Amino acid sequence: MRVVITPEEMYEASLAAARAGRRVGFVPTMGYLHQGHLSLVRAARATSDVVVMSIFVNPLQFGPNEDFARYPRDLARDQALAEQAGVDVLWTPPTEAMYPTPQAVTVDPGPVGAILEGAIRPGHFAGVLTVVLKLFAIVQPRVAVFGRKDAQQAALVRFMVRDFNLAIEIAVAPLVRDVDGLALSSRNVYLDALLRPKALALPRALARGVAAFRAGERKAGSVIAAAWSVLGEVEGVTTEYINVIDPDTFLPSHAATPRSYLAAAIRVGPTRLIDNVILGEGIEGDVRLGGLSE
Ligand code: AMP
Q1: pLDDT score at 294
Q2: How many domains does the chain have?
Q3: What pLDDT, in 10s, does the model give residues 178-223?
Q4: Quick one: 55 and 140 in the same domain?
Q5: Can you count the helices (H) and strands (E) in the chain?
Q6: Using CA atoms, how far apart are residues 182 and 198, in angstroms rounded to an integer?
Q7: Same domain, 129 and 24
Q8: What is the spatial distance between Cα 60 and Cα 62, in angstroms, rounded to a whole number?
Q9: Which of 2, 20, 131, 294 is the most buried (most CB within 10 A)?
Q10: 12 occurs within a structural domain
Q11: What kind and span of H or E run contains 39?
């Protein structure tokens, strides 16, 4: 595995790969890697000749009171995991290299960027899409792989690629859960032995929504109410939103269908967690560590 630092080095490496007729697959991350990230590498590997992973904690997508400064970082460990997973080029640009001058032009994520995560984290998706566009411009991938864990982000990246005519295929990989059902996230490290059991109310709530759907509920409100009731029972958990989302428009919908997402965000102590499930597939449709599908 080759490690590159500057945008210029990365650009040259990609250009050389393209000249050699090799297809570049790209996995952007913020590091502190887990099996969710590594599953994206395997997905990229399957359709590319060269797999590039970036590790960049993007200040532009964090609000002033968010966890940018304390976001977990461990480059040595990440490097070992990325190499084992089959990454060919690991790119770890410093902040000053990505933003040598204040970003004068940013991407407007539009109406979908203003709801759900965007309503709670103003400016978040403008920051995400701006850095993703910069990363795409430097890596020049043929395919980029995102995780369904961040379903709204994946939808917005798809919209950006479509609306700006970028010649990049966007693949969305399945959501990977820990053995206990919690969606893997770098931020799970914030959960101590007291908070983690409370956090498990999130996948449990989504499963309850799926159960209501399976029992025949087709009104979004009824599915949401079923999920909400689980979260309401747990002390120390605050629900930020639970919504049934249309998979094509990524807007909240009144009708629950097998392809709809049931997406939720909660706060457990100081930590925000997000999760989602596809109603027709259920939590058991996701990848589970230690389970049969891993
Ligand atoms: P992050 O480092 O959190 O910005 O995530 C980088 C990429 O990994 C994004 O495309 C995420 O959606 C994806 N990802 C993070 N957690 C998971 C997970 N549990 N399952 C699948 N993909 C994930």
Answers
A1: 39
A2: 2
A3: 999 999 999 999 999 999 999 999 999 999 999 999 999 999 999 9
A4: yes
A5: 10, 11
A6: 10
A7: yes
A8: 6
A9: 131
A10: yes
A11: helix 35-47
